[in-house]
Amino acid sequence: MGQIKKITCKYCTTSWEVAVGAGRAHCRVENILHFFRDDDQKKILETLGENKKKGFNFQFIPGYCEDCKKIVSKPTIKICETGEEYTGICNSCGTKLGTACGNPECPECKKIGWQETLEGFWD
Ligand SMILES: [Zn+2]
Ligand SMILES: [Zn+2]
Fold first, then answer.
1. What is the DSSP letter of 89?
2. CA of 90 to the centre of ligand 1 (A)
3. Are 71 and 92 in contact (CB under 8 A)?
4. How far is the CA of 69 from the centre of ligand 1 (A)?
5. Residue 33 phi, psi (nearest 5)
6. pLDDT tens digits, the chain, 123 residues: what are they?
7. Helix (H, G, I), strand (E, B) or coil at 24
8. What does pTM read for this prediction?
9. What's the pLDDT at 1?
10. In the chain, fewer beta carbons within 10 Å around the N or the C end?
11. Cα-to-centroid distance, 40 and ligand 2 (Å)
12. Closest CA relative to residue 19, chosen from 68, 46, 58, 67
């Protein structure tokens, strides 16, 4: 079950609501491929292999979209066996999101320091 988190910058108090975690449908690779760019989709499928036997971890984490200038839900997938990670696209503008993990810097004041509060659940 995914969570809705409110992320507030400790410095300038700008806040964003982002969906993090993964939903029930996201354990099937067919349901998550569209979160990634075409070339990454190909690589993910190749890495998982024909019968998709290899396990993977998919989840949304907070990420920064340079085009939208805001904090968005960033889709990420990690292939268990190889440790390869791929980052998905922004669901509003389709830009591939940066690979940095963890908390991005604040688009408003450029500092890093977030307060997270749980707002609810999705899926
Ligand atoms: Zn800030
Ligand atoms: Zn965007």
1. B
2. 21
3. no
4. 12
5. -60, -35
6. 899 999 999 999 999 999 999 999 998 999 999 999 999 999 999 999 866 667 999 999 988 898 998 889 999 999 988 899 999 999 999 999 976 556 678 989 999 999 999 999 998
7. helix
8. 0.88
9. 86
10. N
11. 18
12. 58
Whole-number Å distance, alpha carbon 96 to ligand 1 midpoint, is: 23
Taking the CA of 115 as reference, the closest ligand is: 1
Q: Structure tokens of 42?
A: 């190909």
Contacts of 110 (CB under 8 A, 6+ apart): none
At residue 38, what is the residue type? D
Q: What is the DSSP letter of 96?
A: B
Phi-psi region at 52: left, alpha or beta (left = phi > 0; alpha = psi -120 to 50): left
User: Residue 63 forms beta bridges with which residues?
Assistant: 72
Nearest to 19 by CA among 31, 3, 32, 8: 3
Q: Which of 1, 19, 4 is nearest to 120 (CA)?
A: 4
